[in-house]
Specification:
Chain B: It is found in: Nucleus, Nucleolus. Chain B: Belongs to the WD repeat DCAF13/WDSOF1 family. The complex is a heterodimer. Chain A has helices at about 1-15, 20-35, 45-75, 95-100, 105, 410-425, 450-470, 480-495; strands spanning about 80-85, 110-115, 120-125, 130-135, 140-145, 150-155, 160-165, 170-175, 180-185, 190-195, 200-205, 210-215, 220-225, 230-235, 245, 255, 260-265, 275-280, 285-290, 295-300, 305-310, 315-320, 325-330, 335-340, 340-345, 355-360, 365-370, 380-385, 385-390. By secondary structure, chain A is an alpha+beta fold. In chain A, the strands form seven sheets. A four-stranded antiparallel beta sheet of chain A has the order 2-29-28-27, with no helix packed on it. A four-stranded antiparallel beta sheet of chain A has the order 3-4-5-6, with no helix packed on it. Chain A starts with a helix and ends in a 37-residue tail after the last helix. By secondary structure, chain B is α+β, with helices and mostly antiparallel strands. Chain B has a domain at about 60-370: YVTN repeat-like/Quinoprotein amine dehydrogenase (Methylamine Dehydrogenase, Chain H, 7 Propeller). Chain B is built from six helices and 31 strands. In chain B, the strands form seven sheets. In chain B, strands 3-4-5-6-10 form a five-stranded mixed beta sheet, with no helix packed on it. In chain B, a hairpin with a 4-residue loop joins β25 and β26 (about 315). Chain B starts with a strand and ends with a strand. The chains are: A alpha+beta, B alpha+beta. Chains A and B meet through α3, β1 and α4 of A and β1, α1 and α2 of B.
């Protein structure tokens, strides 16, 4: 039946597609590469600048056109799909049916690895999807090369492992163990013990910034720069214990889900959250971010999965019916939700999250984590009896860019890439809700009085500076510790003091005479004394 | 049911043999590159810092002269050689690559004031304050020159005597005529011992001459009575003249836009004019603090180099008001002449301390053979730095130059003086009837008058 269908397609393709159709298609693609609107040059009076900018805008248009053409004609692979005809529904199709239709390389990606002794497994993939790290709750860590299904290294740490995460490539990984978090090398040697963080519940790595973010059992958020080991920020969230933490890949912001149903977003340079959203009436079970940064999925214990638009902070869609313990978005925007021993994949091309596929496992296999493998149509499921991998056609990005993430990397390429990643390491100040603001000019303001927010920020900076100043070591018995601490406290107190002119509310005017005050402000008994104009 | 999944076969995506190049695949989708703007900014910052690290503009000094350098000349046909003449009459031909004298041309008594080379590169013309014009045969570079110990010396092929001291000389770009400047402007032919033509612009001496690279019969002169005059040899009198408030020490035509010329003025600014329209300067290039002594355009026509009495050499963009680069050394005293090399890579300055100095035009450029990958990386760094160079962090790094103390102080002082003047003028204007006080734009302020002579 499939062969006959193919023939029909061939007949259609012999007729050349209309030129206009190609143009329309290319224009739609071009928009993506233009990355926003062109500049408005009408208001410029400087002719030299206008011509220079106009020629540059033209160049941008040309390069967007070229990129659109490359995407249409030159990319080596095309995306996967699953199409049913007639009454068959896509979510009734089982993995066994798919296995019959798909080629042998893909069918090798469907398997169950049964490891019943070591507890529910958490998974992590490297950015290229080539390596996978599996961490069992009872202390089993395994590093696997997915291309050849090669077990590179497995170690048993003999204590609870709550979460695992790769650092920038497969050479280093971090495991959150019972009391502290540890960093291991690829061959399993323990490299660092991260004592400062305490008992870590979740670990995530921010790739562009080389920051290892973690939330611990007390609810503190820690950011550490793994290139030189400095703790960049430790933030007391003030919202209690949580183990729901995710990183938004678009802007590097960390989202925590709390037991009151709020989701808060954090950046390392501020002690207060950027955003607080009330998402669910009960505790938030898991959070996931779409790779384009505009969509967030949250699930609560009241058996709802909600999709939020992060530009307006509004709910886009609610999916009823099940309590998703874990959520994950794929590169193409499909959402996988795992509950009990059942995994459901939602989504279609256009952003409406309806049922697409599902996979139910044996009753005893409780799903612990779902994660899509990058650049492949594969969903990795970590569960209480090991881990499985299932095929979800249309979930992965078919064309990788060798300079971004290369699944076929040689060791030389990997070393080069590491150096380039380090050169491009972003400082933690670049984490913000809207990353396109970087490089934009702020309109210069006249020297107004600083707003309250700015005064607070300045005070914070001054306090930090006062805390960090080096005290001079005095000799001849004048270097008593009590005196030193007193002096340091005094400096910090001085920094916290405000200047009398800066406090807005307190710049009270001179006492105004009763007659000068507006009649409307006066109480009724004094109205006769108001000055009549 | 129709299904397709991504399946990559390893041989399609890896190379077959170890002699092959590695396969590289591109996908320009912006969604694969989160935070690309921040990464680009970071790369721009790194590129700006690297540029400063690699900025070593001084290549070497050529020393041998025994008195201050008065003028230099480029050979249009031979890239490696440059002629220089000093205040004691010593003319030398230097090989820039080895920085040694190839040939000496003794003969002048007194300072040599002008040097120029004919179009075919065979004849060197020099003139000096001993009122003579000497023509020399330029020696052809041959294999014997590799023996560096021998310094040849040549005899002049012709000596022509004039009535007055000569101050400048320049050769036509295409043709057999050259012009000398002194008490008047004389047009000579190589073979005639008397000038073919003469122009007398006034009672004051003419201090510099320059032929137009595009029109072989047009030349620009600057005289001591603060005028810049454009002559056409075929006519009997001047075509146009501009009178400024201070005299112009040197004029250079833009080789790529031959209707534009730039004059190096005594007040420290350079004024670019459109030769067809002289009412206002096209651009005023301000950065020197003392008189600008010499100016030369790059063969690309996009930049020019100036040497000034304040002991510095600056490179300006052809249409920009401020210099891109400043070169200075403790040992370099007053700079009297500068030349931009014909391949647009080097700048040669001749100064009062008897040395010619060779500098790179782009201070952080990698010289020599560059691999295509390196070239691409340099271009990328340049482009990404230019995209963000207006932002404060990067602007601070890119703009930063170490200035010698006298120049730094002079700039601060002039800035204070100008600010005070401007404040006063603004207040005067604000408190007078609108329209009574008119501020002249800088482009016209320094021009006294200009006229077209019929």
């Amino acid at each position: 039946m499939e062969v006959a269908l193919e023939d029909n397609n061939l007949m259609e393709n012999i007729l050349p597609p209309d030129e206009q159709e190609i143009d329309v298609e290319l224009e739609a693609k071009e928009k993506k590469y233009l990355r926003g609107e062109g500049a408005n040059l009408e208001s410029l009076k400087d002719k030299k600048l206008k011509t220079q900018l106009a020629s540059r805008e033209k160049l941008y248009g040309k390069s967007a056109k070229a990129a659109a053409k490359i995407e249409k004609w030159l990319l080596p692979a095309s995306a996967g799909y699953l199409e049913t005809d007639g009454l068959e529904k896509t979510w009734r199709i089982k993995q066994t049916d798919i296995a019959k239709e798909v080629d042998i390389l893909s069918s090798r990606n469907q398997y169950d690895i049964v490891l019943p002794d070591f507890g529910p497994y958490k998974l992590d993939f490297t950015a290229s999807g080539r390596h996978m790290l599996a961490g069992g709750r009872k202390g089993h860590l395994a590093l696997v090369d997915m291309m050849n299904m090669n077990l590179i290294r497995e170690i048993h740490v003999r204590e609870t492992v709550r979460d695992v995460a790769f650092l920038h490539n497969d050479q280093f990984f971090a495991a959150a163990q019972k009391k502290y978090a540890y960093i291991y090398g690829r061959d399993g040697t323990e490299l660092h013990c991260l004592k400062e963080r305490g008992p870590v519940a979740r670990l995530r790595f921010l790739k562009n910034h080389f920051l290892l973010a973690s939330v611990n059992k007390i609810g503190q958020l820690h950011y550490q720069d793994v290139t030189y080991g400095d703790m960049v920020a430790s933030i007391r969230t003030g919202k209690g214990r949580t183990d729901v933490m995710e990183v938004n890949p678009y802007n590097g912001v960390v989202a925590l889900g709390h037991s009151g149903g709020t989701v808060t977003m954090w950046k390392p340079t501020s002690q207060a959250p950027l955003v607080q959203m009330q998402c669910h009436p009960g505790p938030v079970s898991s959070v996931a971010f779409h790779p384009n940064g505009h969509l967030m999925a949250t699930s609560g214990k009241e058996r709802k999965v909600k999709i939020w638009d992060l530009r307006k902070f509004e709910e886009v869609q609610t999916i009823h019916g099940f309590h998703a313990k874990t959520l994950s978005f794929s590169q193409k925007g499909l959402l996988a939700a795992g509950t009990g021993s059942f995994v459901q994949v939602l989504g279609d091309g256009s952003g409406n999250y309806s049922r697409y596929m599902s996979h139910s496992m044996v009753k005893g296999y409780q799903v612990e984590k779902v994660m899509f493998r990058p650049y492949e149509d594969v969903l990795g499921i970590g569960h209480s009896m090991g881990w499985s991998s299932v095929l979800i056609p249309g979930s992965g990005e078919p064309n990788f860019d060798s300079w971004v993430a290369n699944p076929f990397e040689t060791s030389k390429q990997r070393r080069e890439k590491e150096v380039h990643l380090l050169l491009d390491k972003l400082p933690p100040e670049t984490i913000m809700l809207d990353p396109s603001k970087i490089g934009a000019m702020r309109p210069s303001r006249r020297k107004d009085k600083p707003t309250r927010g700015e005064i607070e920020a300045e005070k914070e900076v001054a306090v930090e500076a006062a805390k960090g100043v080096e005290m001079k070591k005095k000799t001849k018995g004048r270097n008593k510790p009590s005196k030193r601490t007193k002096k340091k406290k005094e400096m910090v107190e001085n920094a916290k003091k405000t200047f009398p002119g800066e406090e807005q509310g307190n710049v009270a005017g001179k006492k105004r005479r009763i007659g000068e005050v507006d009649a409307a402000e006066l109480p009724a008994s004094l109205k006769r004394f108001a000055r009549k104009n | 049911m129709r299904i397709k999944t991504i399946s990559r076969s390893v041989d399609e995506f890896t190379r077959e043999r170890s002699q092959d190049l590695q396969r590289v695949f591109h996908n320009f989708d912006p969604s694969l590159r989160p935070m690309e703007k921040a990464v680009e900014y970071q790369r721009a910052l790194t590129a700006a810092k690297l540029e400063k690290i690699f900025a070593r503009p001084f290549v070497g000094a050529m020393d041998g002269h025994r008195d201050g350098i008065s003028c230099m000349a480029k050979n249009p046909n031979y890239l490696k050689g440059i002629f220089s003449a000093s205040m004691d009459g010593d003319i030398r031909l230097w090989d820039i690559a080895t920085r040694r004298t190839v040939c000496q041309f003794p003969g002048h008594q007194g300072a040599v004031r002008g040097l120029t080379v004919s179009t075919d590169g065979n004849v060197l013309v020099s003139c000096g304050i001993d009122s003579t014009v000497r023509l020399w045969n330029v020696p052809r570079p041959s294999l014997e020159d590799s023996d560096l110990s021998s310094e040849k010396s040549a005899e002049p092929s012709a000596v022509y005597v004039c009535k007055n001291a000569l101050l400048a000389v320049d050769h036509q770009f295409e043709g057999e005529l050259f012009a000398t400047a002194g008490a008047q402007i004389d047009i000579w032919n190589h073979n005639r011992s008397q000038p073919v033509h003469s122009f007398k612009p006034g009672n004051d001496s003419v201090i510099s001459v320059r032929f137009n690279p595009g029109e072989p019969d047009i030349l620009a002169v600057s005289s001591n009575d603060r005028r810049m005059i454009i002559y056409d040899i075929r006519m009997s009198s001047a075509a146009r003249e501009i009178r400024m408030q201070t005299k112009t020490n040197s004029i250079a035509w833009n080789p790529m836009e031959p209707m534009n010329f730039t004059g190096a003025n005594e007040d420290g600014n350079c004024y670019s004019f459109d030769g067809r329209k002289n009412e206002e300067a096209k651009c005023v290039h301000k950065d020197h603090v003392s008189a600008v002594m010499d100016i030369d355009f790059s063969p690309t026509g996009r930049e020019f180099v100036t040497g000034s009495y304040d002991r510095s050499v600056r490179i300006f963009p052809y249409n920009g008001g401020h210099s891109r680069e400043i070169y200075h050394t403790k040992r370099m005293q007053r700079v009297f002449c500068v030349k931009y090399s014909s391949d647009a890579t080097y700048v040669i300055s001749g100064s009062d301390d008897t040395n010619l100095r060779l500098w790179k035009a782009k201070a952080s450029e990698q010289l020599g053979v560059i691999l295509p990958r390196e070239q691409k990386k340099h271009e990328y760094n340049e482009a990404v730095k230019n995209r963000y160079k207006h932002l404060p962090e990067i602007k601070r790094i890119v703009r930063h130059r170490h200035l010698p103390k006298p120049i730094y102080k002079a700039i601060a002082e002039s800035r204070a003086v100008n600010n005070a003047k401007k404040r006063k003028d603004d207040r005067r204007k604000a408190s007078s009837a609108p329209g009574t006080i008119v501020t002249k734009p800088l482009r016209t302020r320094r021009i006294i008058n200009e006229r077209e002579v019929e």
